[in-house]
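Predict the holo structure. Ligand: NAP.
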Amino acid sequence: MGSLAEALLDGAPGDVIERHALPDDYVAAHLRAEDEDIFDGGTAKDVRKSLRVGRVPMPELAPDEVLVAVMASAVNYNSVWSAMFEPVSTFRFLRHFAKQGGWAARHDLPYQVVGSDGAGVIVRVGSGVRRWQPGDHVVMSPSYVDDQEPATHADGMLGEEQRVWGFETNFGGLAEYSVVRASQLVPKPAHLTWEEAASNTLCAGTAYRMLVGDRGARMKQGDVVLIWGAAGGLGAYAVQFVKNGGGIPVGVVSSDEKAEVLRRLGCDVVVNRAEIGLTGDPSEDPDRVLEIGRRLGGIIRQRVGRDPDIVFEHVGRATFGISTFVVRRGGTVVTCGSSTGYQHVFDNRYLWMRLKRVIGSHAANLQEAWECNRLIGAGAVMPTMSAVYPLADVAEACRLVQNNRHTGKVAVLCMAPEPGLGVTDTALRAEIGEERLNPLRGLTPGPGAGARSPGKTGLA
Ligand code: NAP
């Protein structure tokens, strides 16, 4: 381990960090352009075949960027998409971005460092960075925006040049170092460990915008919110936002173990998908979609007394027809993804005749990321990390997520040598208590058990 890394782990101040030379290269999870076609014609797109861990060169820093030593990161479903080269090759994103020229051209490389979450220490700041300095502890928002584009100033997510860092850009977070724009930075919650802090930003921010943000479903006190995949990456934060905002979460999951997870998160009503006969993708059979919708609607009416005001969607093709059917007259389906397929089929009569709305949502702008982080920093929203993997085993961690064998978030240690480091507000941590801080701890198979056997869990 180089001397910069030692200084960082010793908690050296910014001026000391700045005096240390940067390494020429660093360890990173990355995809390679020569693998772009390896899954052609096949159906089992095992991400362990494409995701590599190895050394990549240190990139140059643009004036509006910072270099962060990434202590920990987390697996997001977008890295699964990247590693499957689905729905398009991730290298197409990089080639397209590079057409801007200037600093953007750096991103078009024969490799892509992936990862859209991370917590760490700022090591260098570009000449145009004003609000941050070396030594600052930060988490990184995935929303990569162009602040010279007018639309960005109405809402960062509306700019045409908005991208997701580590998905549509290079130099992502599943690595020892990452290059991000200063406009992606958020202060790290002081009571969290590196790996807890690294697990939150992308999924919590996305769920926050979908439910609470001005451009999302704008949940009110008392609203009934149906949450698909409620023990997953997005879902476990959605449950917490609904509870915090005085709503009534109805969580759908696929197993009794996940149902127990939801109870730990305080979810009022839990539905096992088996109860409603939802396995696979029923969307090709309209009668089956209505039958499942009626069963689900009946359960919700029976247990809560009304139809859902909001449906929290990201599953896509397999559930979208059910979501638009089951949401109440005048209610809102808010969607940010399509894990089971993006060509949705739904019966539009139930949408227009019952005056329902569908809202598309994507990530979170910087203001939303800060508002969401404030709730996490105050101990009102808990991390949903359930296992911690070393960077060397990141492909196994991604495989778990690809196979839906995880719960909440799977964290990855990058530069931090062990879990449990990075806490600077021990008083708040003690006040909240370890049990409350990690409600999903140990619920995902850990390194060694990985994608193979379900026995061993990731945290003690
Ligand atoms: P995740 O952790 O894998 O959770 C997804 C959940 O979906 C699973 O827990 C699973 O729950 C449920 N699910 C899977 N197949 C299903 C089916 N056939 N029917 C019903 N439920 C099913 O993933 P995530 O991090 O929450 O992300 C979910 C999706 O949102 C991904 O496609 C991701 O790319 C997207 N996303 C988009 C944004 C954005 O900004 N646009 C941000 C984050 C994520 P059960 O098996 O327990 O039912």
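Residues 76-78, 202-203, 206, 228-229, 231-235, 252-254, 258, 273, 278, 314-315, 318-319, 336-337, 339-340, 362-363, 401, 404 surround NAP (CB under 6 Å). The mean pLDDT is 95.
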